[in-house]
């Protein structure tokens, strides 16, 4: 069943058509990835779904409800959470305070405490550093914190914008493992990732975005095997 349905989405940025009528869907329980070069419109897509960027046309339907034009707080309340590109943790707050910021719309103190414990199980390194200022963490730890903060909203759909960007290969492997684990725990994932190879390996389905147009779709495996995808995004040797 389609959980999130984007139809004919058009977005203009300062006179430039960033999205030229793209359509895609995310089914409950899936990991879906959008791949494409820089400037293809991937981040714009997530920001528009999140209510951070206004749309010029089309529709966004979540669980049967049209959410086009909702503000970002309403979107989070509905169960859609965005982990933005570039980590964006609050550097002058501790790890624990950053996590609690993610639960700002919630009032169930016991549930919040239980979710903090769940995140500390997912990321033991954050537990060890719960008192530390987020600005003093390594890039990989900040990314873990950004994911943890996104989970504190108890999302049904988690959108992730370039979670592996700028991280060491070992940390990247950890992040992808965590994405699969979050998904196994019942969270649907919409993922944007420049590391197309790693993203397609864990994705149920993928879509290729080129300069504001959707050009190709298939299962993760089909796109991994597709000659044009391999040449454009995976390097010919992979």
Properties at a glance:
238 residues, alpha/beta, Rossmann fold, six-stranded mixed beta sheet
Tell me what the structure shows.
This protein is an alpha/beta fold. It has a domain at 2-86 and 155-234: P-loop containing nucleotide triphosphate hydrolases (Rossmann fold, 3-Layer(aba) Sandwich). The protein has 10 helices and 10 strands. The protein has helices spanning 42-49, 72-78, 95-101, 109-122, 124-128, 139-151, 169-184, 196-202, 220-225, 227-234; strands at 2-13, 16-27, 31-35, 57-62, 65-66, 80-83, 157-161, 188-192, 205-210, 213-219. The strands form 2 sheets. It has a 6-stranded mixed sheet, sandwiched between helices. A 4-stranded antiparallel sheet has the order 2-1-4-5, with helices on one face.
Distance between the termini: 33 Å
Number of helices: 10
User: Might you state the CATH topology name of the domain at 2-86 and 155-234?
Assistant: Rossmann fold
CATH class of the domain at 2-86 and 155-234: Alpha Beta
Largest sheet: 6 strands, mixed
- The secondary-structure class comes to alpha/beta
* Secondary-structure element series: EEEHEEHEHHHHEHEHEEHH
Low-pLDDT segments: none
Let me know the CATH homologous superfamily of the domain at 2-86 and 155-234: P-loop containing nucleotide triphosphate hydrolases
**What is the residue-averaged pLDDT?**
93
How many strand elements?
10
Q: Roughly how many Å is the radius of gyration?
A: 17 Å
């Amino acid at each position: 069943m389609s959980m999130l349905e984007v139809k004919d989405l058009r977005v203009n940025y300062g006179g430039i058509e960033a999205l030229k009528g793209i359509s895609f869907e995310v089914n409950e329980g899936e990991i879906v990835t959008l791949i494409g070069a820089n400037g293809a419109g991937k981040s714009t897509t997530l920001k528009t779904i999140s209510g951070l960027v206004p749309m010029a046309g089309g529709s966004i339907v979540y669980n049967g409800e049209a959410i086009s034009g909702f503000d970002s707080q309403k979107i989070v309340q509905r169960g859609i959470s965005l982990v933005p590109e570039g980590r964006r943790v609050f550097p002058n707050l501790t790890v624990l305070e950053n996590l609690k910021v993610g639960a700002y719309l919630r009032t169930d103190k016991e549930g919040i405490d239980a979710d903090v414990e769940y995140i500390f199980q997912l990321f033991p390194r954050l537990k060890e550093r719960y008192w530390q200022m987020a600005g003093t963490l390594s890039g990989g730890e900040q990314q873990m914190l950004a994911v943890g903060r996104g989970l504190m909203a108890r999302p049904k759909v988690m959108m992730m914008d370039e979670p592996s960007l700028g991280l060491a290969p070992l940390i990247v492997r950890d992040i992808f493992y965590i994405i699969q684990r979050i998904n196994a725990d019942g969270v649907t994932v919409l993922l944007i990732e420049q590391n197309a190879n790693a993203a397609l390996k864990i994705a149920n389905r993928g879509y290729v975005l080129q300069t504001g147009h959707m050009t190709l779709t298939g299962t993760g495996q089909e796109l991994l095997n597709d000659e044009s995808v391999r040449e454009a995004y995976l390097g010919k040797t992979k």
